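Quarterly update from the structural biology core.
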Amino acid sequence: MNQVVSIYVPRDSAALALGADEVAKRIVEEAASRGLSINLVRNSSRGMHWLEPFVEVDTALGRIGYGPVAAGDVASLFDAGFDKGQPHALSQGIVEEMPYLARQERLSFKRAGLIDPVSLADYENHGGWAGLRRALTMAPEAMVQEVLDSGLRGRGGAAFPTGIKWKTVLNTHADQKYIVCNADEGDSGTFSDRMTMEGDPYQLIEGMTIAGLAVGATQGYIYVRSEYPHAIATLNEAISKAADASYLGDSVLGSGKAFHLEVRKAAGSYVCGEETALLESLEGKRGIVRAKPPLPAIEGLFGKPTVINNVVSLGSVPEIFAKGAAHYANFGLGRSRGTLPFQLAGNIRFGGLVEKAFGLTLRELVFDFGGGTRSGRPVKAIQVGGPLGAYIPESQWDVPLDYEQYAAMGGVLGHGGIVVHDDTANLASLARYAMEFCALESCGKCTPCRIGSTRGVEVIDRLTAGQKPEQQVVLLRDLCDTMLNGSLCAMGGMTPYPVLSALNHYPQDFGVAEKAATAQ
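Predicted structure, tokenized:
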């Protein structure tokens, strides 16, 4: 009797876009035609996107990886004996020993690629629900203190201490409280939220349930961008299974404490990534920014106290409760504790996800992990923190990736998105795009953002056309200052970051001398 071999093919969106379903189907057909018994597992991506579809085979030595695999490669893989881990041109060796993975510190993504994302048994066998079980033995105040002690800060971009939000909601009395997960991941070059939802949805469910128990919230909502249909489907399936197994519902694990969870699809607005615009949208209204105060932690969804955290923030919570705050806080440096899943995108050779403790440098990320540019040309600029993040020049690539150190040099870590540009990029064009993006995506509520971004496009056009450049530089800086200090939210408030960093570090692309670009 043939031994049943487990073969893993990702069901992650990136892998599906590259033909993973066709590869999986071909593997099943080929095994059947050869009389081989296999167990096909649809796992998630490891985050090595240049190798997708990345196929893994269980062996006595561990999992052996092959990639990128096309449907046309499957017959030759079986001919070579890949079901026994034998060598092939696409072989990448033992997966856990691949340098890209071996050099990471995976806390939030420790199960990524290992498990069937919607298998409750797989999740529990790899440490799942341990944090929730411990949380159920703790008083709410102790739970909130655990998060405070861990040093966890918002991974959505603002980096606000997560425990302070929780403490505010806990101490605000109300007949109803909510937990809202901001999964409206709209930044260019980011995909860690999607990978979590598609690859380890129970981690998010567990984190939100712990948050609900900690602050006294009985209802949670996951607000997912409409462009993530696979994430939405995976979450809905996982929520249904978790509820059937009493991890959600009127009595979580028989504790008598209730927590219910639902998915809500976003409407395609970038500004709804801002927490108050998200709340407006979740309530069925037009997604425009609310003035603060009151803070959402006091008057949030439907006017009730609401914890709003992003996917990775909430997904970090089970690890904190399973292993203790000190274990999590042991990673990182300064006030930036734990790990951040950095996402390498743009013109880069090895695009993908790298989870590391705070403190490594941009140079290490882009060259040691990313392998430099895909084009083979020199790197000119690296945008960190999404479309409203600053362009970082080579002189700053050795600054440790840390919230405070990046803020000190006019940058942001944001959601961990890293977009690489080679020496053919024109930074004036990219700066113009930032202003144009803001004009298109502004909710329109405040004048600095709505009008300032439109004027910004016009000023950059005059500047690059050589129309009184010194005067245009002064005007552009004045406009950015107004947007930075006068906008109601980060949409207008952060648009100056890419614009000013491009002007400061790459004045030649604007057709002005360095002296003119920096003159105040």
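The mean pLDDT is 95.
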